[in-house]
């Protein structure tokens, strides 16, 4: 059962990596009839809420890189030595950074979504959230599942040795 759970965690994190990279670096966060804009590259002339959402997504990319590194290190150690109680803190860190990705992504999407009506009113536009935001939300769901699985490893698998 543990090997299946470990495989599922790796698959969920890989899907989350692809979705998060694609969501952050694609150019369709805000779309209207004239085109779309993304959060990369960062412009210093952006409105404050959009700049804050951009920084949240940049931090989420950094957190998911940390999840990937930690997951690689801990599962390499598990394959060599099996589960042990000293790996519990590493699984807690994986869960923490996975939850950070989830919280930052959801907050950034909500921040953009809440301020779009004001943007539409000020510029007489019909802008909506694009597919990049929804792909990032899918990544947040993957990382939420990964956090639960990491906590499961910490509490159930790492209690011996």
UniProtKB/TrEMBL annotation:
Q: Which residues cross the membrane?
A: 7-30, 50-75, 91-114, 134-156
According to the lineage, what is the superkingdom? Answer: Eukaryota
Keyword match Nucleotide-binding: no
Q: Keywords, A to Z?
A: Membrane, Transmembrane, Transmembrane helix
Pfam families cross-referenced by the UniProt entry:
Claudin_3
Please give the name of this protein.
CLaudin-like in Caenorhabditis
> What organism is the protein native to?
Caenorhabditis elegans
The organism's taxonomy opens as:
Eukaryota, Metazoa, Ecdysozoa, Nematoda, Chromadorea
